[in-house]
Amino acid sequence: MTKEQKGRHSNRYRYWYDKVYTKEEIKDYFHEGWNDLIESSFELVSYFPDAQICSAKRCMGMLHMFAKAEDEMVMHAVEGVLWKIERLSSKICEKCGQSGQRRTELKVVHCLCNNCYLIHLNDNDDPMKLFKKGREGRF
Ligand SMILES: [Zn+2]
Predict the structure, then answer these.
(1) How far is residue 60's CA from residue 91's CA, in Å, rounded to a whole number?
(2) How many angstroms does the Cα of residue 135 sit away from the middle of ligand 1?
(3) Fewer Cβ close by (within 10 Å): the C or N end of the chain?
(4) What is the pTM for the complete model shown?
(5) CA–centroid distance, residue 34 to ligand 1 (Å)
(6) Cα(100) to centroid of ligand 1, in Å?
(7) Percent of the chain, pLDDT > 70?
């Protein structure tokens, strides 16, 4: 995998695996800031026939959810919903739910407000290790 591919964001929302996570499991996996978004996603997707959210991950500091649906057109619509949720998550602090921004200078990108970002850095003995090479302290 080249450096460029590693940082690239995939727009696939389709679910390929067998394990399906519940809404509560997904909420537990993340901090509380995105709980409302996860709640809205499950509600919206529940309106679609035979569609279901299966899993989620943090991708480039955004909430990326996976779903499956029986019907192809329904799946396209669900992907649209999940894409919008993902865009919204890029402006919401994943820890507290306040307005936040993606901290792309970090090796593991998180979406955080200023307060939570400081706490995140202070939680580490050597915060400089959290930054990408050459991006240290550029926030
Ligand atoms: Zn916050």
Answers:
(1) 12
(2) 22
(3) N
(4) 0.88
(5) 11
(6) 7
(7) 93
